[in-house]
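Protein modeling request. Please complete all fields; requests missing the sequence field cannot be processed.
Requester role: graduate student
Desired output: 3D structure, token encoding
Chains: 1
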Amino acid sequence: MRLAIGAGVLYTAAGVLFGGLAGAAASPDARVRWRLAAWAVSGVLYLAHLAYEARRHPPRSASWHAAFGAGIGGLGIAIAAMTHAIRTGEGNLPLLLAAIPAFPVLVTIPAFLVGLVIVTTVAKRRRQP
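Delivered output (129 residues):
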């Protein structure tokens, strides 16, 4: 689980870094590109974490570990958004407060299901001659 926590910290760092760059971007197109870059970095991190876990654990455990890391990242992003809103006086605080428990759940469940499909599919293909 230490690896999942580390991955969660990296997801949070990528979200905060690219979110800051998107916020400072001069044009709406540049903002979109920075946000897409954050998604791409997070996707690569997720697949790398999933592949690492899949080599050491059965599909369900590997998927859970990768999803747990993604959920920690979701929690970190929600906390960072709340902190930013409090610091700047901008944002819908009740909505951001609701995001703190919601983001981890909304990230973890799909991450687990997608990971399970990926790891199970790859395992089945490896077993076929």
